[in-house]
Amino acid sequence: MKPKIALQLWSIQEDCQKDFEAALRQVKEFGYDGVEFAGYYGKTADDIRAMLSDLDLDVAGSHVPYESLKNQLEATLDFEEAIGNRRIIVPYASFSTFAEWQEFMTNMQEIAKAVTNRGMKFYYHNHAHEFTEVEGTDLLDLLTHEIDQLLLEVDLYWLAHAGQDVRAWVEAHKSSIGLFHMKDKQQEPEESTELGSGVLPLKEYTQLAKKLQLPWLIVEQEAFQKYEPLEAAKINVKQLRAIIEEVYE
To answer: Would you list the DSSP string of the chain?
Structure first.
């Protein structure tokens, strides 16, 4: 089975702020199968569900702040359930001491229970600092051992940015990986760019996704050099679709 392609909506956040439904309509027209949310721009769960149904867009997942899950767990999960989301993803965590990371892991364990009890899957999305914030500790690896049923949404850009051997790291953690964030990297300045315009081996990453039988590949772009975000999103889905066709032929 070929993976579906979703857009992490953080990539087009300004367009979402201007007119959320119009932005989603564009995403559908570009050829995306679904979206990964990063906020709801004041829309109700009923609003979101109606827009998705009208546009025939699936929910790949949602980036939900750790604080929302910690402080308003049941209400937050009620909302996610109501929009049809089955994947709850903590997008970021950073702490100044290892003791704070340990407290985070304890709280995440309780959140994981609540999420999985509802039949949802629970993920953590990485950046690069998880490899450096506690000296000598791969915090991503530790999270997978300390939190039952936690999956990883592996951002391959940040993994490469952290100096990791991406293929080796993914292979070592394959049992914990449930999603990939696909983005490319330009060298000068070092930042994300359109898929196919940078230096990362996207075909190799897609081959890893095939091996892991990932259901979604999720496009994200955070920096823009030549194109506006919506234009970049259109380029990205076309590029990734072509790579998937080649790898999964």
So the answer is: -PPEEEEEGGGGHHHHHH-HHHHHHHHHHHT-SEEEES--TT--HHHHHHHHHHHT-EEEEEE--HHHHHHSHHHHHHHHHHHT--EEEE-----SSHHHHHHHHHHHHHHHHHHHHTT-EEEEE--SGGGTSSTT--HHHHHHHHSTTEEEEEEHHHHHHTT--HHHHHHHTGGGEEEEEE-EEETTTTEEE-TTSSSS-HHHHHHHHHHHT-SEEEE-----SSS-HHHHHHHHHHHHHHHHHHHT-
Per-residue confidence (pLDDT) for residue 34, from 0 to 100: 98
What separation in angstroms does the CA of 155 have from each of 49, 130, 209? 27, 12, 12
Residue-wise pLDDT for 158-210, tens only, equals: 999 999 999 999 999 999 999 999 999 999 999 999 999 999 999 999 999 99
Burial (CB count <10 Å: 0-12, 13-18, 19+), residue 118: middle
Domain spans of the chain?
4-247
Query: What percentage of the chain reaches a pLDDT higher than 90?
Result: 100
Specify the CATH class of 4-247 in words.
Answer: alpha beta
User: What pLDDT, on a 0 to 100 scale, did the predictor assign at position 175?
Assistant: 97
The model's pLDDT over 74-97, given as tens digits with 9 standing for 90+, comes to 999 999 999 999 999 999 999 999
